[in-house]
UniProtKB/TrEMBL annotation:
Record's protein name: Dynein axonemal intermediate chain 7
Domain annotation CASC1 C-terminal: ranges: 420-587
CC terms in the record's Gene Ontology section: axoneme
Domain of life where this protein originates: Eukaryota
Molecular function terms, GO-annotated: beta-tubulin binding; microtubule binding
Family: Belongs to the DNAI7 family.
Gene designation: CASC1
Amino acid sequence: MERLEIQRAEKEKLQKLEAKDLERRNGELEELYLLEACFPEAEKLKRDSRLLSQWKHYIQCDGSPDPSISQEINTFISLWKEETNETFEAVTAKSKLVLNLIEKLKLILLETPSYDLQEKNIIQYQGSILELQELLHLKFNIATEILLRQASTLADLDSGNMEKVIRDENVTVYVWANLKKNPRYRSIRFSETQTGFEIPRILATSDIALRLLHTRYDHVTPLGPVPTASQEHTSAVTYFGKDEVKSVEAAVSKDLQEEYKEQENESNSVHEEETKVDEQGGIEGQTSSVQEESEATKYELEMKLLSETVSAAQLLLLENASEKPYFFEENEVDLCQFTALGGVHHLDILELPPQCKPRKGWMIVEILKEGLQKYTYPPETAEDFETENTFPPIEVMLEVHENVLFFENPMVARWDAEGKHWKTDGISNVSYKSEDRLITFSLDTFGPVTLIQDAHVNMPYQSWELRPLDVNKVLLTVTTVFTEIQIQIKENLCMLASIKLNNQKHSSILEEKWMTPVSFIIALKEAGLNIFPTGHSHFYVVINYKLPLVEVKAYRQMALLSSAFAFGWSKWNTVCNSDKVVFQVREHLPKEEPIQNPNWTLLMFNGDRAQSLKINESSDAFSEALKEETEFHSTLYHMVKDFASKEAMKKVRCSSCQFVDSVCHMLLSTRLLSYS
């Protein structure tokens, strides 16, 4: 009986708390709505920034084209096509501008929200990217031909063959010309490098040149699809906006007319001279007042529409694909599962062009109309030869770029030009020396090759923490099986603070470099530090699935509170249902001294209700029991407000909208609550 009485009392208490929560729900949600106005405000600032960058480019007048304007970029491409006989030095110098233009176009496609992108613009930008990529590679081929024509004049005194290495921050070119055709000279090593080839006898006696063009960038992998808002949704939003604005304008116009009439009626009872003065002043004042109200209403409406659009776009970021990509060919690389790292190594066997010959103080050279020609190896018709013995695979040694991290031995993939995808067949005897950062493999036929790694090697995460550092500045720490990554976020910028491998600090070129969130995510992925799941990642990683709407609401409110509260991983998040998330939270003012054993509070949130849990991280079993002397709340903001200091809540309300938006973007991109 006593136990039943206790249960009844607890049930009554719970019902009272639920009723209290329901009673104040509307008020709490209204306050949260006002706080979350920072998201549309941040988006408006980003729009203004994009427009400002176009204006800044226009007034710079530095001669470089604006890649977003088709006339300018087309003129640039046409003029560069007309430039002939450019050397490697000239092309590498020009490539800096070209790569910058490509980068700008890619960022426009990634940073511009889908609801602001039109289909024709996407086609235009992607077309310009492909044209620039193809033209840049063509220019490198022409420069190679010019260099090989002079091979005899650049020959090495010891070997009699030409060897040339040209280095640049974006490109390294290794060229070897077989001038002597010595059958014993089959081991090629470029001076001061570990890069080289082991060629078969048939190539050692042929008029050929070998070229390895290592680009730090990847212009071979096809461009990924750009997410766009559905035409119906966009038009609905557009028309909804127009109709609303028109109705507001009509209402305001009607109010103005009525007020003018009232003013005229009142003025009839006063003397004419006084009436004129009073009427004029009154109408002017009333007109300006109503106009101000009209502008305010329009702005409020604009922000409301933008708020809804931003929320929808954020939800779209967490949308999981319903079907796994299907691949038709065997050995085809699944680019949803794997990622290419370290750029592309373009391996080519070339026919040696006619050499320059000195004649009476002149240099005479025969220029072939067809230009630089590739040497087919093995030949398409090899009936008279024993193919396996005469045309064996070529051994290749490549240096792995120092700025790229491989957590497992890299795999080698070759480009299939016909199928337009990466494949792993035709490659054998792969060996990787991690200490020397040297990879060796045998290749049946030459062509572009790249190194690939599992894109999800650092997923799921083992733990995470989001901690305030200063005003509008936080530190996000993500711990995986192989590494610990620390990211600083301030205002609208992100920076890699540190990386740890096997509990030891690892230096990276990205450290201390502040970037916008989108640029930062790209840079981290290219360095092999991928902690950013995609819509297909759940097919390759065992995840702790949470409802996207619950996740979005949690991340938005965590970002709002991040100026004064630390958040951390909880083991109970994997135990609770998919419609709830559990994490740790504590007040953490930036000037506080680090605490050895901080007192964390466990919060559970389902998107509509937040509560403190009675259990802690060291409890034996999971329970949704409410912590004593606490209440239910409709938002995380009001939940933490119950135990927070006034100073902490003041910091929260004073947070910059761009800072909150950047923190939210990083949380949405890492999906800590689903991938931990």
